[in-house]
Design goal:
With about 425 residues, the protein is an alpha+beta fold. It has two domains: about 240 residues, Aminopeptidase; about 90 residues, Elongation Factor Tu (Ef-tu), domain 3, CATH 2.40.30. The chain is built from eleven helices and 21 strands. An eight-stranded mixed β-sheet has the order 5-6-16-7-17-20-18-19, sandwiched between helices. A six-stranded antiparallel β-sheet has the order 9-8-13-10-11-12. A hairpin with a 2-residue loop joins β14 and β15. It is globular and about 65 Å long. It starts with about 20 loop residues before the first strand and ends in a 9-residue tail after the last helix. The relative contact order is 0.19.
């Protein structure tokens, strides 16, 4: 069934083109993501970290480097398995709280930042900041650590990885181990290892030594930090879904710094525990009680080998944010997102979902008496692996789209249909 027609297109106001760039030192500047030289040569990546590069207009044509925003880099490098999001919380606090009119933490660890608290309608933007991890469940007499998984791991990816174990006394380094291929039978070589057939080796010589360093319930993440590999294409352990938390936080920061303010109350929520059942979004949606919401997560880029587009649709890295259509999505919210993208000339892609999505959108939509919900996904390759790939141009375009959407809302616009 087609979504109902409406004439409530994106209206940023006054007919002026919306221009909101990244916030740097409390000021907003026009976006300068990739600036090729006159020859059109490929752009080159720089190592993460360091001060942001802001190019004067007369240098823009000559510049040919991409610098990832410090906010997203810090989030990506923060270790935050579900239920242990402390490091990501601290990053979100540092970057977003100064821009918010109201800012609070809840009992689960969600971060809830509000702009224009008297505004109408109430718009909730949600992106989860938790990630996959491993949790220590047993330490044997030789000092090896056995673990269970936090979130949906591909077990073939686990062995042979360097890991950081977060303990009360700091980070302990380790390696995930299993029996070497030389010591396996031909039948065993064809099997995916079970969790209890793998362990973490921290170099301890005994159970006593290991227990002096690590406790039951400590968590580990892959020792894999963010890196640009070509232009604006980056690789990280947890693009899923640090980019979503970045996008909602950065949208609020830019709206706060822009001259024109939204009529809506904008509430940016960095949610927790999404990877184990959208648990943070459920109480957050009840607490915020929004009229409208947009969840931001990652989605599968289907542009790599061995991905059947007849099953999974056609989406690609660098093609723009993915907008979802289906039962989980309010048709009027989707229509307005599309209108805003078209007005601001923001590229976007479409996907369809016949059932509730595996994102915070499924929980938010069912909050209280129901919430008009949309979903934006960032195209990503190799989801739930230690090396996920994203084009950060898609991230930037998602921030621009959410900002335009927020500014387009008018009082009493609740997307009831």
């Amino acid at each position: 069934m087609g979504h109902p027609p409406s004439n409530n297109g994106c209206r940023p106001g006054g007919g002026a083109e919306l221009k909101i760039g990244p916030v740097v030192s409390g000021k907003w500047v026009p976006s300068l993501l990739i600036v090729p030289d006159r020859s059109g040569s490929e752009t080159a990546g720089l190592p993460a970290g360091g001060p942001p590069f802001i190019f004067p207009p007369d240098m823009a044509k000559k510049a040919k480097v991409y610098q990832a925003p410090e906010f997203v880099v810090d989030l990506l490098n923060a270790r935050s398995p579900s239920g242990y999001e402390t490091e990501a919380q601290a990053v979100f606090d540092r970057y977003v709280e100064p821009s918010a009119d109201e800012y609070r933490r809840d009992a689960l660890g969600n971060r809830i930042a509000t702009l224009n608290p008297e505004g109408d309608p109430v718009l909730m933007l949600a992106g989860h900041m938790d990630e996959l991890g491993l949790i220590v469940t047993f330490i044997n007499k030789e000092g090896y650590l056995y673990f269970d998984t936090i979130g949906g791991h591909d077990r073939i990816m686990i062995p042979g990885r360097r890991v950081n174990i977060q303990t009360r006394n700091g980070v302990i380094k380790g390696v995930t181990g299993k029996r070497a291929v030389h010591l396996m039978s031909s039948a065993d070589r064809e099997k995916v290892p079970q969790i209890h057939h793998m362990w973490i080796d921290i170099g301890a010589g005994s159970q006593k030594e290991a227990k002096s360093l690590v406790e039951i319930g400590d968590v580990a993440t892959y020792d894999q930090s963010f890196e640009l590999i070509r232009g604006s294409v980056g690789v990280a352990r947890a693009f899923d879904n640090k980019v979503g938390a970045f996008i909602v936080g950065e949208t609020l920061r830019r709206l706060a710094a822009a001259k024109r303010k939204p009529r809506a109350r904008v509430v940016a929520v960095a949610t927790v525990q999404e990877e184990i059942g959208v648990r943070g979004a459920t109480p957050a949606a009840y607490s915020v009680d929004p009229h409208l919401a947009v969840a931001v997560d990652v989605g599968h880029a289907t542009d790599h080998p061995d991905c059947d587009q007849r099953k999974y649709g056609e989406t690609k890295l660098g093609g723009g944010p993915i907008l979802c259509r289906g039962a989980n999505i309010n048709p009027l919210v989707l229509e307005k997102l599309i209108a805003c993208a078209e007005k601001e000339k923001i590229p976007f892609q479409m996907e369809a979902s016949p059932r509730p999505t595996g994102t915070d959108a499924r929980a938010i939509q069912m909050g209280r008496g129901g919430v008009a919900t949309g979903l934006i996904s960032i195209p990503l390759r190799y989801m739930h692996t230690p090396s996920e790939i994203v084009d950060l141009r898609d991230v930037e375009n998602s921030v621009k789209l959410l900002a335009a959407f927020a500014l387009s809302l008018t009082k009493g616009e609740y997307a009831h249909w």
